[in-house]
Specification:
The chain is α/β, with parallel strands linked by helices. It has a domain at about 5-180 and about 365-420: D-Maltodextrin-Binding Protein, domain 2 (3-Layer(aba) Sandwich). It is about 40% helix and about 15% strand. The chain has helices at about 5-15, 75-80, 80-85, 100-110, 125-130, 140-145, 150, 160-165, 190, 195-205, 215-225, 255-265, 280-295, 305-315, 325-330, 380-390, 395, 410, 425-440, 450-465, 470-490, 490-510, and strands at about 65-70, 90-95, 120, 170, 170-175, 175, 185-190, 230-235, 235, 245, 320-325, 345, 350-355, 355-360, 360, 370, 440. The chain has a 5-stranded mixed beta sheet with strand order 2-1-3-16-6, sandwiched between helices. A 4-stranded mixed beta sheet has the order 10-11-7-12. Helix 1 (about 5-15) packs antiparallel against helix 22 (about 490-510), helix 12 (about 255-265) crosses helix 20 and helix 20 (about 450-465) packs antiparallel against helix 21 (about 470-490).
Length: about 500
């Protein structure tokens, strides 16, 4: 890890942990209308690794733990380690909800007091809301139980940003990490290094072909690699259309791909008085760049969420994407990927500011697990969370069967665990790429109202991408809605919390 960058990022994340104190209950944002996909068949567990030393607690006597999370591969650990749970008298019942519907589903059950869940998986931007309103059980007491081998989640092994921000609220621990999300660049190394493509690019643009350093490069390289069926790519005649780039353009998290572009300008989400900065000229330029990038993307890109964007890349339909850091693991697995061994990774593109290129990479999602305050089996629920967060975590992040990303020191110091890479050197190159992305990491909003702010931003970014609003009109609408949310939550209190965040942003050099 780049220690200086990590320490600076930690400062802001530690400060941000306390910003949600006494958070009022925000209104539940409207979730996109989307049905949960059918659960995938249970997968064989990855091989157990003799790295983490842990032990089983005494039996819980045959209890059922109801666990909720976003549907798909990130719930597989609870299937992988079913036998571990059974050894201590726990049966885990998994409830799947759509990726974009986690907040609405969990908040609805919390407010209604149904007691439907024992363990909740959620995105840590919501921790101020969930913990601040008493929906989550504090975990410090469980973490300190004896024997430590059964109960201690080894917080000192967790990278500080993920522990201090993702898991704490008001000085207490309310969640345990299971996923260290950040976005990174990935590109077709074989295409960028092909002599014919290098020569053609040099002739057309007068410069060497290289991974995009800026978002202007992103557009230029995307245009260059966009080809029709029958044209030549890297010496081969294309049997289908090929595209230079693609985006997460689907309703839900498209805002993150916009913030990657905007954050590099050094502007915060709000000014000192909580006036939104989101419709500044630089923000409009960033969104226009994202809109322009769709010219180089597949025609169905407006339907691209995580799965579609991943497949477009690893199924050899596009030359480059920005994605979560699990995708290169899947791309290295020849049972899933058509481009195994051909993937390069790097920093998310940036903008030239003050004579140098500034890179920022949003850290969206990043799952955590917590115990519901109204669970009837809290100790058993805690152990399920702890077992996945620590005991089996290296197995869970080093397999291509999940989308979980490294968040512990042990995840970075054991490259041999990442068996999808043919050599330890390739695994180490991947982990170094993840470290570089984390060094550019840019946090989500993380103050009261985060869910509402992000939902509004995502809605209008999505409308701009669909051509329903201009970038300026879209971001003007966001600014208006952000002001309404701030007033609803209490402007004076929000200003106080945000100014503390701004102080840390300046210390970090993220803004002037």
């Amino acid at each position: 890890m780049k220690r200086a960058s990590l320490v600076l990022l930690t400062l802001i994340l530690v400060l941000a942990t306390g910003l949600s104190a006494c958070a009022p209950a925000p209104a539940t944002p409207a979730a996109p209308a989307e049905e949960a996909e059918p659960a995938a068949p249970a997968a064989e567990a990855p091989p157990a690794l003799d790295v983490v030393k842990w032990e089983y607690p005494a039996s819980f006597g045959g209890v059922t733990i109801n666990l909720v999370g976003d549907a798909g591969h990130n719930l597989k650990p609870y299937e992988f380690w079913k036998g571990d749970f059974e050894k201590v008298g726990i049966t885990v019942q998994i409830i799947e909800v759509p990726f974009e519907g986690v907040y609405e589903k969990e908040k609805t059950e919390f407010v209604a007091g149904t007691g439907a869940f024992d363990v909740v998986t959620f995105y840590p931007a919501y921790i101020g809301d969930f913990a601040g309103n008493g929906y989550l059980e504090p975990l410090d007491e469980y973490m300190a139980k004896d024997p430590a081998g059964a109960w201690d989640p080894n917080a000192s092994d967790v990278l500080a940003p993920f522990w201090e921000l993702y898991c704490k609220f008001g000085g207490q621990v309310y969640a345990l990490p299971i996923d260290g999300d950040v976005l990174m660049l990935m590109y077709r190394k074989d295409l960028f290094e092909h002599p014919d493509e290098q020569a053609a690019f040099k002739e057309q643009y007068g410069k060497d072909l290289a991974p995009p350093e800026t978002w202007d490069d992103w557009l230029q390289i995307g245009e260059f690699f966009t080809r029709e069926a029958g044209e030549t790519l890297a010496g081969e005649t294309l049997e289908r259309d090929f595209y230079g780039s693609a985006e997460f353009a689907k309703r839900g998290f498209s805002f993150a791909w916009f913030v990657n572009r905007w954050a590099a300008f050094g502007e915060p989400y709000f000014d000192e008085n909580m006036t939104p900065m989101v419709n500044s000229p630089n923000a409009v330029k960033a969104l226009q760049n994202m809109v322009d990038s769709l010219k180089n993307a597949p025609p169905d890109v407006l339907g691209y969420g995580y799965d579609e964007l991943r497949d477009a890349f690893i199924k050899s339909n596009v030359a480059m994407v920005v994605q979560w850091t699990d995708v290169p693991k899947k791309g290295a697995d020849p049972t899933q990927s058509e481009i195994a061994g051909k993937i390069g990774v790097g920093r998310v593109p940036g903008w030239e500011v003050g004579g140098q290129v500034v890179h920022r990479s949003l850290m969206p999602v990043g799952r955590v697990v917590a115990v519901a305050a109204d669970s009837k089996n809290k100790e058993a629920a805690y152990w399920v969370a702890k077992h996945v967060s620590y005991d089996r975590s290296l197995e869970d992040v080093s397999t291509a069967l999940t989308g979980l990303d490294p968040y512990r020191t042990t995840h970075f110091t054991n490259p041999q665990a990442y068996k999808m890479f043919p050599t330890a050197e390739e695994a180490q190159a991947y982990l170094k790429g993840v470290e570089a992305a984390m060094a550019d990491g840019y946090p989500e909003i993380f103050i009261p109202g985060a869910a509402q702010f992000e939902d509004s931003l995502d809605l209008h970014v999505n409308k701009a991408l669909a051509g329903q609003e201009t970038p300026q009109a879209a971001l003007d609408a966001v600014a208006t809605e952000w002001d309404e949310t701030t007033d609803k939550l209490g402007r004076d209190a929000q200003i106080d919390l945000w100014r503390k965040a701004l102080e840390a942003y300046r210390t970090l050099g993220l803004i002037k």
